[in-house]
Amino acid sequence: MGEGGPRCEIAWFGALCDDDYEFLGVPDPDLRSSWEHCRDIVLAAEASGFDNVLLPSGYALGVDSTAFAAGIAPATTRIQLLLAVRMGEMWPPQLARQLATIDQMASGRLTVNIISSDLPGESLDSEPRYARTREYMQVVRALLDGQPVDHHGEFLDLVLDPPGATTVSGHCPPFYFGGFSEAAKETAAAESDVFLTWPDTVEGVAATVDDMAARAARHGRNLRCGLRSHVIVRETEAEARVAAARLVSKLDDDRGTTIRNRSLDAASVGVSRQTELRDLSDDEGFVEDGLWTGIGRARSGAGAAIVGDPDQVVAKLEAYRAVGIEAFILSGYPHLAECDLVGRHVLPRIDHGPLPPS
Length: 358
Description:
The protein has helices at residues 35-48, 65-72, 92-105, 126-144, 182-191, 202-218, 237-247, 253-261, 269-280, 310-322, 335-345; strands spanning 9-13, 52-55, 80-86, 110-115, 149-152, 157-160, 175-178, 194-197, 224-233, 286-288, 291-292, 305-308, 325-331. The longest helix has 19 residues, at 126-144. Mean pLDDT is 91; it is low at 262-267. It contains eleven helices and 13 strands. It is α/β, with parallel strands linked by helices and 358 residues long. Helices cover 39% and strands 18% of the residues. The protein has one domain (9-349): Alpha-Beta Barrel (TIM Barrel).
């Protein structure tokens, strides 16, 4: 077992947004997001021993996360479901009722990933967009805590009784939240339970953890931190590096730029940091030992991978744990194959389990 402190949560990635490849940037009809393919990923993650699985939300890409969560919940028995929902896309009373119902279908295993990107067809500046997100988070949390709402804000003006449907616990599931602008960080510090950062050097992650802890303290709160990263693990370091090189061996840079830009978060502060890491990396794409930035050539969002043999991957995760990371959301290409490899080579060596209540 790992020696990085209290147990951590390790989640896999559900690839609901057409983000699964054998060769990055080369579409494969067999790996497109569908009910069947994404179901198989979630079931494999549960069988491999992961604690949670992220069900990402996209508008133009893949399948709907909320509908998928409702479908997969009764098909699983142990793994938690980290359902991504966009604040503003669903009316808060309806969203609260949906989340409570899905939590019941999952026997209390629902967690929620708050998304604050632009809604399809609109463009809001960062400050008002996060102000809207904050109001939605406040109202949804109150409703899922079984509390009436008397809210009069800039974006919501509501007087409501809580919905008849309640979560299994009677409380709001934990809110996971990512974002790197000032408005995003302040919203996370004030309203979320787990702040998710993207791949960075260990020093960079440590700085983010310290920053978010200080921000949360100013709001009189405690905040956990998680890391969203890709991973490539093989029996030897040489094999892992070969797998990384193979993954991008057919990538056309113009196609990679198109893939990055199709995401609604393509111009965000966080994405800019991923670009900076690529610019700082060596000729093989490594920005520090075990952290490879090649994936970011064709992916908006998390743009780096932990690469190495089992010892190296575990050591890297433990290094992040040592600076305050309590949850990981991992992914790899193709998602079914890498899920099996991480399940066999990494999970048994780290003390992990679902995050306990705050």
